[in-house]
Design goal:
With about 70 residues, this protein is mainly alpha-helical. The chain has 4 helices and no strands.
């Protein structure tokens, strides 16, 4: 197995982990964009997400850039 095959396999695993991370985050009521990104960068983190309990209540949301600017005082 040469380096090109390893890179292709890693890329496919990363894409599959990102999709699975997004689905799991949606099921567990978590911020799916955060989990898709981290599962793509570090695919084994899907196992950690799998072990997390389901978040009760409203799904957390990121503040908009305007809200962040207002808080920072700029």
């Amino acid at each position: 197995m040469d380096l090109t095959q390893v890179i292709v396999i890693w890329g496919l695993v990363a894409l599959a982990a990102a999709v699975l991370g997004g689905v799991l985050a949606g099921v567990k009521n978590r911020d799916y964009s955060f989990w898709i990104a981290w599962c793509f960068v570090l695919p084994p983190i899907v196992l950690f997400l799998l072990l997390l309990p389901r978040y009760e209540g409203a799904r957390p949301r990121k503040p908009s850039l305007d809200e962040q600017d207002r808080r920072s005082g700029w």
